[in-house]
Amino acid sequence: MSEDQSPLDFFAGGVPAFAIFSMHLDSISELLHVPGVGVDGTVQELAYIGVVSYTEAFFKDQFAAIMNVFPEKAALLRESGRDVAVDLTDLLGLEAPLHNKFGFLLSERFNFGSPKAVNALYRDLLLLTPFSKEKILLFDKVLATRNLLVHHGGILTTQFNRAVPAPDQERTYFDSVQITKKQIGEAALLALDVIKGTVNASVSKLLKELSGVPYTDVRRKAVEYMKFEVDDDIKLSSSLTLLVKGESPYEYEGSVGVLDEDIPF
Q1: Exposed, middle or buried by CB within 10 Å (0-12, 13-18, 19+), for 1?
Q2: Is 39 within 8 Å of 33 (Cβ atoms)?
Q3: For 212, how many CA atoms within 13 A lie in the half-sphere containing its CB?
Q4: Residues above pLDDT 90, as percent of the chain
Q5: Which residue has the higher pLDDT, 3 or 184?
């Protein structure tokens, strides 16, 4: 291990996965709170899609970071029947040390697009399942709505309507799914809860594996960096909760309204 290697080298973009995820959610929440802009239907649909996309990206990037710090865990994946072979030409495009970049290559070949897929991958890697049975059901509904928006422009399909109680069904192939700030806030809070639990549980397991390693070791520092800002999400959670409640930070007593510096673009 190179002495001058930075703990951030193990992360996609040089930033811990949770930090990237929380920054994206914070930006989405800020945008939806902007008067006028936040009530636009297309903006709300894009925000909903973004929540799911950034959630999937987190699980991929966190998985890659863990593999970068612990490349030997590739053996566990192979024992579970995972294909861990990599193309030599892909390796040639990586900077040294190569064995701390394997996670980036392997994570590209795996599917992180559903709670069950995520659970299976993290179980093989860490004996950890991020989504409980209840949260699998909840996020599957979020995912179904996201897929409807992405693949069908939001127009209701027979497959989507099968999961909707008959009294609540709209016209198939005619009406569109309606996305609200409440739905976006609920989806984001669900993802945030699952992801925080994943980070805390994975870091706890990994630090136990490094119990005999000096605190100055770059791998140990990288694992500790995975928790960056995980316990500092009060502002984000409060902002998302306001979306669920249909409230705005600009509506409280004594508020001077929205200012230019409040608009995130």
Answers
A1: exposed
A2: no
A3: 0
A4: 63
A5: 184
Residue 153 scores a pLDDT above 70: yes
Q: Which amino acid is at 65?
A: A
Structure tokens at 259: 């200012």
pTM, rounded to two decimals: 0.89
Question: Is 88 buried (19+), middle (13-18) or exposed (0-12) by CB count in 10 A?
Answer: exposed
Segment 105-129 shows an average pLDDT of 95
pLDDT digits (tens, 9 = 90+) for 220-255: 999 999 999 898 889 999 999 999 998 888 765 445
Q: Which of 244, 120, 135 is nearest to 193 (CA)?
A: 135
The 10 Å CB-count burial string (b at 16+, else e) for 62-77 is bbbbbbbbbbebbeeb
Residues 171/201, Cβ–Cβ less than 8 Å: no
pLDDT band at 86 (very low <50, low <70, confident <90, very high): confident
212-221: Cβ within 8 A, 24+ apart: 217/1, 218/1, 218/5, 218/6, 218/7, 219/1, 219/7, 219/10, 219/69, 219/70, 221/7
